[in-house]
Backbone:
């Protein structure tokens, strides 16, 4: 009974590999070492991508993007990481005394600036991924401050 079990195992190995069991073991070891090489290659690519992400984050921090509303009466400047850098309000808008208008234009100008900043970050992300749509990449990039959140 033990002999037939071993024959079944060896027969199975031989039928899967197409060669005697000893050659299959060598092939399995070869495949395993190839797999380790593939893992090393993936690790190297991940390290390179990490460096590119850092470069893009630095570039986004240096960008200056302006959003405005009311014909330029309210302006916001943000960077590519959606940090607000400045806000400018035309003095004529203050003098009008129309608080509701000022509030609406402020919100509109801020949204305009942030929308443009998110577009710039998305373009940077496309550059990083080479235009590929990688599942989960957008979520990861938004956590790194590189995309729409």
Residues:
């Amino acid at each position: 009974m033990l002999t037939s079990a071993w024959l079944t195992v060896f027969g199975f190995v031989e039928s899967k590999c197409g060669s005697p069991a000893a050659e299959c073991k060598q092939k399995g070891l070869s495949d395993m070492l190839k797999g380790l090489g593939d893992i090393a290659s993936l690790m190297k690519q991940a390290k390179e991508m990490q460096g590119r992400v850092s470069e893009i984050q630095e570039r986004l921090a240096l960008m200056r993007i302006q959003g405005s509303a009311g014909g330029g009466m309210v302006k916001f400047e943000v960077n590519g990481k959606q940090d607000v850098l400045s806000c400018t309000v035309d003095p004529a808008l203050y003098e009008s005394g129309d608080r509701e208008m000022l509030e609406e234009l402020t919100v509109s100008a801020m949204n305009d600036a942030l929308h443009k900043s998110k577009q710039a970050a998305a373009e940077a992300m496309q550059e990083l991924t080479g235009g590929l749509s990688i599942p989960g990449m957008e979520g990861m990039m938004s956590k790194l401050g590189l995309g729409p959140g």
Notes: Confidence is low (pLDDT under 50) at residues 4-15.
